Amino acid sequence: MDEAGRALTPQPRTETLPELGEGEHDRVAVVGAGPNGLAAAITLAEAGLPVTLYEAGATVGGGMRTAELTLPGFRHDICSAIVPLALASPFFRRLPLERLGTRFIQPPLPLAHPFDDGSAAVLARSIEETAASLGPDAAAYAALMRPLLAEADKLLVDILSPLRLPHHPLLLARFGRLAIRSAAGLARARFRGERARALFAGMAAHAMLPLERPPSAAFGLVLGLLGHAVGWPLVEGGTQRLAEALARHLTALGGEIVTGRRIESLDELAAKTILFDLSPRQLEALAGERFPAAYRRQLRRYRYGPGVFKLDWALAGPIPWRAPACRRAGTVHLGATLPEIARAEAAVHHGRISERPFVLLAQPSLFDPTRAPAGRQTAWAYCHVPNGSPVDMTERIEAQVERFAPGFRDLILARHTMSAVEMETYDANYVGGDINGGLADLRQTFFRPAVRIDPYSTPDPRLTICSASTPPGGGVHGMCGYLAAVSALQRLGR
Prior knowledge:
5-stranded parallel β-sheet; 15% strand
């Protein structure tokens, strides 16, 4: 990465790790300070190891960064903004985040999903309030979600902790029978009306998979469950506050953080163990010939999903939604019906731009006044595009917002755009603009980044991968880093 935090992919090279000097035989290095790199470094420091965390950007955080992208005083989350997994994560839940300066804000509604008639379905903290917005499918929705919510704590731990055998295998198996299905298939089987089908389709579309493909239903179920169990919160002041809190905790444990340092060669790291918060592509390029040919082929064959095109807006006032529920929601899904969302996601999967994309929108300043000057607002939205697409989706995204909020365009004071190509330039972990760390189809749900009993290990026992390209995948939860650190500690005999 360069000084501005833009990640660059290193070129392959043959090299050996440097010999360890006096007092360095327990030293550990972590490369990349996204949520997983930070989690890995904290876990290793808690075990009493001397840890150095290297970040090429000027600040830690990876996707957890906040900046004035449009106008002075308008603070925008560059990537991650809505962080339900942070509250569900077993790793984050044991940290003193509030004492470290992190405050989570819960919008009145986690999610609203408007329709062309001016109404909206909602995901509320209460199953009853959610069901009431779904018309004829109120009872069916409650029957689907109540059993999951009753076991939410147990279920979420097992979903987010795939390193070991599950604590609750029968519970996970019951969930798996639903989750392994396609989102479209499950929605049509369980719901009769378009409102419930559309709400579930919008949540499932976070999978960045065609809704007719398994296991897209898993994303809809997990995001719905999170909404009821922990909400869909945002971080006061921006997601970078969470990154800064993790950094403070690491240094309090004795860890060292080096920013503005791009690691170009393993020769630079005198450490017994190195963990990489990098994509498989970056790891294969950096480690070079240290890996056998078969493992390198697996890293090269790792598949990345669709990219995203993201828009940030500085606005003169709140978005004028026709559906009142949208004014109470932190997140708004724009795509109306299941068939419309399914068509948009299928087009992207087949390498085409959707003329009417499914749009994911967040409006944090409605609930966090630190994000914008008095009387003004910030908002962002993104849609899925083919991996590596340079296409500007501004007009298509704004047309979708205007469709459900007439007069929206009149409020725009300034905008900032990032294409899928620019996303990768900003952070090389987002290969082709893929913010999920890799395609989440059936194979790569269970085997990522390679087919190994321990997915965090590599053929070199000194090298471990801890990025979102390992289980449990993308999201601000830190569990990839935590579980990779546990794996590394086991190999060190700790």
